[in-house]
């Protein structure tokens, strides 16, 4: 749960262009699961967006050379992840007047 | 004169705001921008064109083309191959055959890498000109798991940054995304700002139907693409590449061959930008004069991300 919350918060922060905060959160997720794929890809894509393609490539190369064996993201997708859009829609509808 | 190539890679979105506050600086350097172009007449590539046949506009400003490269530039080929559970049997055999045939077509100066993906991404072979190493890695591919198509496409694009050579990303997939962390728009944005050429290879689906009056004999009919058509076609369009479909499993190998033949029919145009700002997004328009032809090329480049080559 801590890993997933860090990844989702990182996505949210990145969307708001709070790139330093997003990077810290991805690194926090990687601290919990050092070989996780989702956090590494998120971190790499964030570096790309920040104009650091070499750093983005370095993160991806590390990941590809050591493929992830365990990533809570995959379990999340097996659970409620596929309902994400409908659940989010319902949540939004519930808070809108 | 010492020739300089300028290759264009991904730009930071965050620089736009900064650039908007600074006065434009106009390009006057001798750095060349290169644009990879495919000219099609119907479904067939047009070959034999010369510099005089092309017209190129950078942000609407006509540019003087200086170079036309056909076979001279070394190629980095990044093969990103879907090996999720559905890629099995004849489809897998054909995929391996097609990927291996691409390796056979590499020139001595070319290099290739093999990235496999299901829900998990892996580097089967790093960029190398060692054909046996590449073929061994292709032969060892085994299907398993679900499909992280967008993440895999992103990984291929990201690997581009480690090299300055002309880069072709060959992306094979037979399914829709089921496990990526990246959103489609994020990957397409990176593709748009990259100078990688993406050729996507999909597989058409088939369904079984029972025609009226023949209820005992099922008939296989095309049911359209089973791949993520929107994403793959978007990826190809952003980079000036193409989405090409194998008609069936057996056709996968031949489709790889057709793609490489088409890729070798492309032109690489070079020009030193004149009369345009040395910053921001540059919209590119490429036309062929006096000819009714379709031109495929990337839609633009970001000046901030140019990488001068010696």
Comma- or semicolon-separated keywords:
heterodimer, A: 97 residues, globular, B: 310 residues, alpha/beta, seven-stranded mixed β-sheet, 35% strand, disordered N terminus
Per-chain topology:
The complex is a heterodimer of chains A (97) and B (310).
Chain A: H1 2-15, H2 19-32, H3 37-49, H4 53-65, H5 72-78, H6 84-95
Chain B: E1 5-8, H1 15-20, E2 32-41, E3 44-45, E4 54-58, E5 61-63, E6 65-69, E7 75-82, H2 89-104, E8 111-117, E9 121-128, H3 131-139, H4 149-159, E10 166-172, H5 184-192, E11 197-209, E12 219-225, H6 229-239, E13 242-246, H7 251-263, E14 267-271, E15 281-288, E16 294-297, E17 300-302, E18 306-309
Parallel strand pairs in B: 1-2, 7-8, 7-10, 10-11, 11-13
Antiparallel strand pairs in B: 1-18, 2-3, 2-14, 2-16, 4-5, 4-15, 6-14, 8-9, 11-12, 15-17
Helix pairs in contact in B: 2-3, 2-7, 4-5, 5-6
What does this structure look like?
The complex is a heterodimer of chains A (97) and B (310). Chain A is an all-alpha fold and 97 residues long. Chain A is built from six helices and no strands. In chain A, α1 runs antiparallel to α2, α1 runs parallel beside α3 and α3 runs antiparallel to α4. The longest helix of chain A has 14 residues, at 2-15. Chain A is globular and about 45 Å long. Chain B is globular and about 60 Å long. Chain B is of the alpha/beta class. Residues 1-30 of chain B have low confidence and may be disordered. Chain B contains seven helices and 18 strands. Chain B starts with a strand and ends with a strand. In chain B, 24% of the residues lie in helices and 35% in strands. In chain B, strands 1, 2, 3, 6, 14, 16 and 18 form a seven-stranded mixed sheet that branches. In chain B, strands 7, 8, 9, 10, 11, 12 and 13 form a seven-stranded mixed sheet that branches. A four-stranded antiparallel sheet of chain B has the order 5-4-15-17, with no helix packed on it. Chain B has helices spanning 15-20, 89-104, 131-139, 149-159, 184-192, 229-239, 251-263; strands at 5-8, 32-41, 44-45, 54-58, 61-63, 65-69, 75-82, 111-117, 121-128, 166-172, 197-209, 219-225, 242-246, 267-271, 281-288, 294-297, 300-302, 306-309. The chains are: A mainly alpha (97), B alpha/beta (310). The A-B interface holds A 7, 17, 19, 37-38, 41-42, 44-45, 48-54, 56-57, 59-61, 63-65, 67-68, 73-74, 77 and B 9-15, 115, 119-123, 126, 146, 148, 151, 154-155, 158-162, 178-179, 181-182, 186, 190, 304-305.
